[in-house]
Specification:
The protein has 91 residues and is of the alpha+beta class. It has one domain (22-90). The chain is built from 2 helices and 3 strands, in the order H-H-E-E-E. It has helices spanning 22-29, 41-50; strands at residues 58-62, 68-71, 82-84. It is globular and about 30 Å long. This is 21189_t:CDS:1.
């Protein structure tokens, strides 16, 4: 017996959180809330400031300037075709 008055709810979160991307791995390392996909370095730094993280973050950018990467403190191996970004340029 099917009730036609019942409402179906298809809950979909408004943001997708990918725990495998470098910035969320970094946040998880420091026990901070994860953030949605498609972040910029600026939005990521703002998130760190909002949660009072003062740890020095190491970023790199690829040669196309189309992708940035943040490194865990214990894993500072530069990715292929990436260059570290001078921290002073980010503030």
């Amino acid at each position: 017996n099917h009730n036609t008055n019942s409402k179906k709810t298809n809950y979909k979160p408004s943001h997708t959180y990918n725990s495998e991307v470098c910035y969320n791995k970094f946040l998880a390392y420091f026990n901070l809330p994860l953030i949605p996909q498609d972040q910029t370095i600026g939005s990521f730094l703002k998130h760190l400031q909002q949660h009072n993280l003062t740890h020095y973050a190491n970023f790199s950018i690829n040669t196309n300037i189309s992708e940035a990467h943040i490194y865990l403190p214990s894993k500072l191996h530069l990715l292929p075709e990436h260059t570290f970004i001078n921290q002073k340029l980010l503030h």
